[in-house]
Structure formats: structure tokens, C-alpha cells
Design goal:
Cytochrome_P460 (chains A, B), transmembrane (chains A, B), 3 helices, Cytochrome_P460_sp (chains A, B), homodimer, alpha+beta, elongated, Chalcone isomerase
């Protein structure tokens, strides 16, 4: 027995070291992922008052970092500069050129009053922000409106139900052939 | 000696396992970083013909994915819609509101002919792409021009030296107080 016991201790020692180092492997391997997860923008707490009437659409977090699809200009009386951006699902769909847009697509149109550049007579630049308009594709949830939910926001808050009732009719009438989306990608 | 030899073997065994597992730790820990590095956009091979005269500025890869700083409009005769985007260094500098912009800042102005929307009388959308204009901050390399290198591209190729000679004078005269950058971030 006295000959076997040290042998057992050695084995336990080897096993313990191996397990400890394996645990270290797992932990260290996970660190970069855990850091990525911690740094990623989580789903923001959404107040119901921040969701659009009828559709329940909210302003998506981080949309200002999204890729530009196209700028635009709207004549008087709105007199605005605009820029439509999209999430990665939207960008991928535009690049593939396939319609309809897949569920999960989100488009955001930012808008500003047109303002004379103080440096150039010929240049017009963004003045005050006016509306943020959002389209969210969910073919089940929004089956009655071509798969799209709409949200129109002023100062971060949705406008009234009456205004939201006008979205679908116009998109349906004028952009049916492009899955009800007006914006084409800028070349 | 016959009693000591197996003891030595055990130790070598433990050492070997420990080293092997440590190597595994290091390798697995590095994998995510190596993958990130492999997936990151490397510096593209740049033909000298693609670099602007005087400054040697090229169109930065991936700029279409960069964050929007502001759209703009340019009246006739250019008659353009525009969008200025920036790399992360530029975006961080704008957000911090600190001037001058740090070395490594890159701004890209995309431009398109204004085009009547086929769906809306009041809407103007991007037509054909016209110029891509690039500003690169390198306070040593471009010390003679406020730290900025300029590139103006049509169809992916730089315009001539005469046109590039006009960049600095205008930026110097009209935008000195903002580190020679015209574009303000859209609110």
C-alpha cells in the first residue's frame, strides 16, 4: 500500500493540473467573446410611449451608425434634406437586389430642414432635425400592410395615429413593385 | 537509480502535459484575434494611377460602409446631392467636438446628380454618381496644407493636378476655424 499511495497522489496531481489548465483554456478562450457581448449595444428598454400607434414600431438603437442607402431632398413646404440608412439585413437585401426584403429589415429615414451654408452660396446643409421615419419588415406581424410596420417620430416621440394611418396607403399605391419601399440605393 | 528513474519520468510527463495544455491555451486564446485580423479589410494594393496628384491620396476601401456625418445639396451648375461619411477616427473626433482632427482622420464626400423622383413630384433623389472627394489628415506629411491631403476622383480615377491645386486655398480661406473642414455633423 505504501508503494501505491504516492503513485495515486501523482495521478491526482496530474489530473488536477490538467483540469485547472483546461479551465484556464476555456476561460481565456471565452474572454474575447464575453468582451464583445458586453460591449455590444443591448436592446434598449423601450417605453410604450416611444412606440408608434397601430404598428408599435420604435426607433432602433444605433441607427445613426447604419450604412447610408441614399440621401434625398424634399421640396417646400417640407423643405428638407434627408438620408435613408438601413440595418445589415436591409443592406444585404439591397446588394443582392432581391425582393421582397426579408423579415428583420429595418430602414430609417433621417430628415433635416434645408439650411443655407454660411460658407458657400451654392451649398445647402442640414438645419434642425425634423422627423425620423422607420419601416420594419415582419411579414406575419404586419401582414395587413405588405409586411411593413411604420413609425414616424418627432423629437424621439411617435406622431399621432391619424398620421400613421396615411403611411401604408401611399407606399401601397406608389411603390408596390419594389416591396413598397421608395428608396433606391445611391449608385 | 531504478527507484529514481520512474520518478523522473512522472515529472517529465507532468511537465509535458502542462506545456502542451499551455500551448493550447495560448493558441485558443489567440484564435478570435487571428480571425478578426484575417477578416479585417487589409490595405488594398494601390496603383499609383489611383492616387491623387500632389497629395497621393487614394479612395479608402470600405468607405461606403462608413457612418454618415451629413448630407448636403449643391445648386446648379453642379446640381448635386451629397453625403459626407467618415472613418471611426473622424466620427470620434466629431463626437468629442475637439479640433484639430487627429492624424488618421479620413472624410469622404460622395456626390450624385440631382434627379427627379419618379414617384413624388416633391422629391429629389441621387442620379448618376459624379465625384468622390477625400480628405486625409496627416499633420507631418501634409504640413504645408494644414495637415490635410486631398483627393478628387471621377469614375474611381483622380482628376488632374490643376484641380487638386484648388483644394487647399478654398479650405484655408473659408474653414480655418474648423480645422479646414466644411462639414458639420447633422444634428
Amino acid at each position: 500500500m505504501t508503494l501505491i499511495e504516492p503513485e495515486k497522489n501523482k495521478r491526482s496531481y496530474v489530473t488536477a493540473i490538467t483540469l485547472a489548465v483546461l479551465l484556464l483554456v476555456v476561460l481565456l478562450t471565452c474572454v474575447p467573446y464575453l468582451v464583445s457581448i458586453a460591449l455590444a449595444e443591448g436592446p434598449a428598454q423601450v417605453d410604450r410611449a416611444d412606440a408608434s400607434p397601430i404598428f408599435g414600431v420604435t426607433i432602433p438603437p444605433g441607427y445613426k451608425q447604419w450604412e447610408l442607402i441614399a440621401p434625398a431632398e424634399e421640396a417646400a413646404p417640407l423643405d428638407e434634406l434627408r438620408a435613408v440608412v438601413g440595418n445589415q439585413t436591409a443592406i444585404d437585401a439591397y446588394q443582392a437586389g432581391k425582393l421582397p426584403f426579408p423579415d428583420g429589415t429595418i430602414l430609417v429615414k433621417r430628415a433635416w430642414k434645408r439650411k443655407q451654408s454660411p460658407e458657400f452660396a451654392s451649398a445647402t446643409i442640414p438645419g434642425a432635425a425634423t422627423t425620423v421615419q422607420v419601416m420594419v419588415k415582419d411579414s406575419r406581424k404586419y401582414a395587413a400592410t405588405g409586411g411593413w410596420g411604420f413609425g414616424r417620430f418627432v423629437g424621439g416621440k411617435p406622431v399621432d395615429e391619424a398620421q400613421h394611418r396615411t403611411c401604408w396607403g401611399c407606399h401601397e399605391a406608389r411603390a408596390r413593385s419594389r416591396d413598397y419601399v421608395f428608396t433606391r440605393p445611391a449608385p
